[in-house]
Amino acid sequence: MPLIETSTPSAQLAAVRTSIAKAAALAGRPAEAVELIAISKTHDAAAIQPLIDAGQRVFGENRVQEAEGKWPALKEAAPDIALHLVGQLQSNKAAQAVALFDAIHSVDRESLADALIRAIDRAGAAPTCFVQVNIGEEEQKGGCAIDTLPVLLGHCRTIGLPIAGLMCVPPLQVEAAPYFALLAKLARDHGLSGLSMGMSGDYETAVMLGATHVRVGTALFGGRS
Ligand SMILES: *Cc1c(COP(=O)(O)O)cnc(C)c1O
Description:
The chain is α/β, with parallel strands linked by helices. About 45% of the residues lie in helices and about 15% in strands. It contains nine helices and eight strands. Pyridoxal-5'-phosphate binds near residues 41, 62, 201 and 218.
């Protein structure tokens, strides 16, 4: 049987881009206002390369070590690739993260902000940083508590770590819209324009509610084992 057209990586990419454009149009936003981050965690170079070939240039990983294993070689072939770290970061890996990633979405505590600014100063790098907010106030989730967000943002300002926006992963299996709306309000209250929110199951909703960065894995690569 011939491959069904929509199962090819480039067709999946086109479909996700079309959905983003439609959701953006519904909200009166230009599609270019939304950065699609292809989340390639657990997928190997052979799975990632077709998306690079199809023109995708922004990718995301959730583990420093995994990213170090596969991205230097992939980036050599396509140096204009931007790599985003979307998973939790240990302070002792800040230097490695700063060396490899163009953006870090998981700043969630003062000690990590301190480690990042030290690594940034030493490396002369300038990764785009987002503060992750534990928007559903879930015990096991990463992200700073909503209550402590003002203090953390103040600390980042004090030490000179520029924060581009806020990031969240809402609770699973419930409607995400209220959490996206809350994150958007928090960003507005703090004068931040970046909003990293929306995954395969809810990125269209996130775009309608103002996402500037959507993090999409499964809808592009298929399921993870
Ligand atoms: C894995 C992951 C994603 C992508 O999730 P999908 O549901 O596969 O699109 C987005 N954000 C974070 C933080 C992730 O860890």
